[in-house]
Design goal:
With 127 residues, the protein is mainly β. The protein has one domain: Immunoglobulins (Immunoglobulin-like), CATH 2.60.40. The chain has one helix and ten strands; from the N terminus they run E-E-E-E-E-E-E-E-E-E-H. InterPro entries: FN3_dom (IPR003961), FN3_sf (IPR036116), Ig-like_fold (IPR013783).
């Protein structure tokens, strides 16, 4: 099944520590985008000014259930993360959370909607 792109062209800065003895440096995530299918979403970004060990968490919640799930730390140099096992036709709140922030503040938050199986094929045929 094809995925539908969703783009957010924003710059988000959050501090990250290169080494314990160095001051916090700003990290920018650019062109954060989603490709959403019926059971998965691929989140991608471009990281600028990032140390190789910069990490973040991807947190997501099915808005009907209200339970947050949080990924293992994701290295920002990976430039993407896949959330799988999503429910078709459901709305999810997705957050990117800086690993080194003391208060675990979100650096990005958005709501995505998964597709319903067969919906895209019906739309292509004009049904």
């Amino acid at each position: 099944m094809a995925t539908l792109p969703y783009y957010s062209n924003c710059i988000f800065f959050f501090p990250t520590s290169v080494q314990d003895s160095l001051p916090l440096l700003p990290l920018a995530l650019l062109n954060i985008s989603f490709h959403v299918s019926d059971t998965f979403a691929n989140i991608s970004w471009i990281a600028r000014n990032e140390p190789r060990d910069s990490q973040l968490y991807v947190a997501y919640m099915n808005n009907r259930e209200g339970t947050w799930r949080i990924s293992e730390p994701v290295n920002t140099s990976q430039s993407s993360h896949v959330i799988d096992g999503l429910e078709p036709g459901a709305a999810y709140t997705v957050r990117l959370i800086a690993k080194h922030l003391l208060d675990n503040a979100s650096v990005f938050e958005d709501v995505i909607q998964t597709q319903v199986k067969g919906e895209e094929q019906s739309q292509r045929r004009g049904i």
